[in-house]
Amino acid sequence: MNNREQKGKFITLEGMDGAGKSTHIPLIIELLESRGVEVVSTREPGGTVLGEKLRALLLHESMHAETETLLMFAARREHIANVIEPSLARGAYVLSDRFTDATYAYQCGAKGVLPSKIKQLETWVQDDLRPDATLLFDVPVEISIQRLRSAREPDKFERENAQFFEKLRQAYLKRAAENSHIFHIIDANQSIDKVEVLVKNIMATI
Ligand code: TYD
Fold first, then answer.
1. Is the pTM of the predicted complex or chain greater than 0.85?
2. Distance between Cα 47 and ligand 1 center (Å)
3. What CATH number is attached to the domain comprising 186?
């Protein structure tokens, strides 16, 4: 629990592109709503009008990895001020499709931005706001690449090679190991039905 006024819970979803997290968002919303709480479902980068404009740049323009990091945190600042904090303060559950762990995985783990720089931005932009729980959808790299091939037109991140994806996966697993009180790792290399059962079991503990 944080020092800020927070009555609701902040839940984030993470994983490599193609891990399948988006498939399970409707189920998670339904599970939370069945508790009779307000659910605010949002995403990063994005979640606000300005954030969505930054998302369009981030997903399609090539740029220095530190520029990318700064823009991710600029969008995040807006998202926290306008969506996340007000929602948590009035008691809503906020479900965000990605948050700062994605910056540690993509910009730090896969693209080499120093973790100390990300940490500084995290402290600046978030103060003591951290997710109460994070569901990490984990699949082997080949599976994620296979799934992406059969999906829609790839964005900038989805066009990266297997080596990038491997670094990404390892960075996520390292974050999970270091923050085991927040993370729940889901083996998403199975049928949607089986992953749904895992999601339900985890959500029952949050
Ligand atoms: P994603 O969440 O996968 O959305 P969609 O399912 O619509 O493709 O896309 C967001 C992309 O942004 C994803 O490739 C990861 C990347 N990203 C970062 O690199 N760093 C960040 O901090 C965040 C939040 C996202």
1. yes
2. 12
3. 3.40.50.300
